[in-house]
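The following block was generated as part of the benchmark described in Methods. Ligand: succinic acid.
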Amino acid sequence: MSLVTITATENGSAEQHRQWCESLEAGSILFFPKSPIALADSDLQFLRGQQQTDSSLHKNIAYKPKSNELTGVDTKTANPAAVDRLRAIMRNYSQSVTAFLTGFLSPYAGQWQLDYASFRPQEEEGRDLPLRRRNDLLHTDAFPTRPTHGARILRFFNNIHPTRTRDWIVSDPFRSVAAKYAPAEIALPQPDSGIGRAFKSLATGIGLGAAAPALKRSPYDDFMMRFHNFLKENRAFQSSCSKYDYQFPAGSSWMVYTDMVPHAVLCGQYALEQTYLVAPQAMVAPQHAPLTVLQELTGARLI
Ligand code: SIN
Ligand code: FE
């Protein structure tokens, strides 16, 4: 596992941009000691103050850039002006990260889908969550309600705490962990069954149209969800796997393919995050992608 520290983000050459994509795809974390994303002091103070001033804005809050909507806010009790302000800050954050990455990761331009952003105001240490939702256990990311069909989950983070670090541990990337545990402990994905294909053509035939296959989880998505659960539930993996500690300082940013790098957050408070779903065809080093690894292990097409 490696961390690539980036201090100069301006005017990189096309080759430099390709290398940054390649490092990410190989499972590195790209780390920016000073975040390239500027946030106004007044906005930072507003975000850090939510816990005290409006208890309905203290949970993790998701922002959907495409519809400019916040979820996780209790609109019955929240102060409407605070909700409007939070929405505006999140829109601005989402747009700034996208503008930055459009240049910084130019080989991916036009080949990603802008997914949700989030505001994480709670102290991560000692959170009381059901096991599968705990983020202090090592895991790779998969979305229960949003299958990616092989698209990669790329996440960009900002530690916006005024002084404290956000502490992560990570483990070795997908290929080594998947090869170790599949198929003995986690059943490998099965190629799409005839029933699945019949459902798709039936759904298209009766006018559910293109939406139906997108909602359906592919064998790839099914495996990635089971893999996420398996890692969190497996005590031997949690205690014996290789672990690398990273402390991301106040004011820093980092990005990583969280679908391939097992990660956990141990402590820290106040973070912003933006997720992208990067098309499988955009990979500059597709040999590392979980889809490639799984297709090699099974000898079958999984999306
Ligand atoms: C996660 O994706 O597991 C959360 C990481 C964080 O909030 O720092
Ligand atoms: Fe995660």
